[in-house]
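Q: Predict the assembly, please.
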Amino acid sequence: MLQAITLSCLRGDRRLFSNLSVTVQPGTLLAVVGENGSGKTSLLRMLLGFLSPEDGAILWQGQDIREQREQYCAQLTYVGHLNGIKDDLTAMENLDLSASLAGDHCDGPVAHAALEAVGLRHQMHQLPTKVLSQGQKRRVALARLWLSTRPLWLLDEPFTSLDTAATGLVTEQLHKHLTRGGIAIVVTHQEVGLPSSLIQHLRING
Amino acid sequence: MNRPSLWEALRGVVRRDLLLAMRRRSDVAMSVFFLVIVASLFPLGVGPEPAVLKTIGAGVLWVAALLACLLSLGRVFTADYLDGVLEQMVLIAQPLPVLVVGKVFAHWIVSGLPVVLLSPLLGLQFGLNGEALGVLVLSLLLGTPTLSMIGAIGAALVLGVRGSGLLVALLVLPLYVPVLIFGAGAVTSSMAGIGGEANLSLLGACLVVSLFFSPWATAAALRIALE
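A: Predicted assembly structure:
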């Protein structure tokens, strides 16, 4: 269970949001929506521990995340607005390195399967990612979701530059994650195509 | 669950950076060539007088090594910061300072070690004798990791700042002064016959101190950059 208690966020002189409280139960997707610049990504970065809240606290399983940074990090998978992949490395190497650094199980067949699952054909796996299109790079970054069995996923605009087929694949994977009892926090402008019983909306007003 | 051991995380960071360096060999070659060219310009400029070259040799080589290190500092964190790999690194379930040590170690392998290996050859251009060359190599072996360690703090502090190349030089060069003095001093004093041990010990002390403080300072600077 992830809880945010009376969070407020101050960036420079501007107050993005204050007194924000939300509780996300296992098996739920929290869709964070709001206008551009309203503080959606700031909220996500707070949940990741990059940004300290001006006020309030974030609790994971009842304990403040600042007091258990390493244990908390071991529970989460984050795919940011930046892909976090290296242009000079192949899709396989990128996936292998980021998964092994995170401590997820990843060997050749598993990585190939994950890339296939996200819709990248076999011949693309050994190409440096700089020759791939924007959407394909996004798919390489999102392939980590197929390797992650962690309970908490934090995704920043996961569907940007994805086509409808890939959006469907990612949504399906999110559904699987939720039925396993996982939590997903998704910052998005698009509607997530999941049953509304699984989705909890959080609107941030700037 | 799902937590890499400290050793696995450290090895992963080093492996990624070395793999990247292999893919972009031109970057690596650039700072090595810079060192060779700067060191070779001095005998051409000052003239072939052996006595003069012998006196300035150690200092010139040390300054060249220091500038070559400075040139490569931009590579340590900037690319990772821009493509989001740094965010992922900070989220690894191991202490960030340890991962910083991995990054700095990879940086040293790529930019410091070639300098150490090339230095005897460059030293010959200045007419340094066998013993002086040995001390030069030893001083660089102790000094270049210190340069990488101190440089990492600067490289992390200037992340996301415009014109960071010059700023990192301004931040880091004053901190390089002791390393330069002890490094060049070791070679000069060994040539003067009083032995370079004292200066080498001080270089070793600099390395230990930087190994102790730099990872923490760098990790703090990285956290600020990601806010």
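Residues 6-226 of chain B form one domain. The two ends of chain B are 27 Å apart (CA to CA).
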